[in-house]
Every structure is written in C-alpha cells, then in structure tokens.
Fold this protein.
Amino acid sequence: MEPTVGDIEQVFLYNIDDLQKFVQKNLSSRTAEIERAEAIVDEEVGHFLARQRSRSAVPAITALRKHFYAVRDSELLRLEGKLAALSPEHRELLERFTHLMLEKLLHEPTVQLKALPDQETQATYTEALNRLFRLSEVESDSSDASGARAKTGGRN
C-alpha cells in the first residue's frame, strides 16, 4: 500500500507495528481481566469451603440447642406449681424471655463453632462440647422433654 494514502482526510493507515500495539494492548487487558476473574473465583471457593466446614458443625450445634432447651423445659415443668398463679400473658412473657435468653446464649458458640478454620479443630471442639454437656444423652432426654412439653401445653 502506498504510504501517502494516510494523508487523505478520514483515512487511517495502519501498519504491522500499529496492529501489534493493538494486539499487545488487548492481551494486557485480557490478562488483567483473567486475574480479576481468578480473584473472584478464589474468594467464592473460600466462601464455599467455609460453608462446607460449617456444615459439619451442625449436628453438634443441634444437639447443644436441644440440650439447653430440654433444661429450660425441665425447669419450667419443675416450677409448674409456682407458675400456675401467673396469668396467660405473664406465662407467655416468661416463656418468650427464656427462649430469647437461650438464643442469645447460644448465638456466639454457634457462630464460633461454624467459623473454625479446619475440620480437625472443629472435631476437637465438637468433642469437647459433647463431653462438657453430655450431648450424646440429649437424644434420649429430648424424648422425655417432648413428653413434658405435651403435658405443659406444648412450650418449646
């Protein structure tokens, strides 16, 4: 092609070097996007793995919650005679209060157990919870507590 063609108005003349610059700019842009995409994938993989690790804590958390609620139900049943004088509104308030209290007490241990960095540490903590609160006994006790709830009007 004739180099003087580039002198014509609204005509752009590109040579191989110009095209090479475009190719290089495009490759640089794509490389930056690849790095950004890989960072997003790495972050999401981290979130996924954390969720997977937290799932193995669910049985211990469930057992701990059952244990605490069984203690609550047992104590409410034990105090049934003293609570009989309460109005239905006051009784409901007491039950709501004890429920909220347990939720607050159990929140942080639940969050911390789910957030443990690896399954080995999580297994160690889970075993500690099982031993401290004798959670293996919760299943047999929870059926007793269910019966107690039925006798006291279905509180949970």
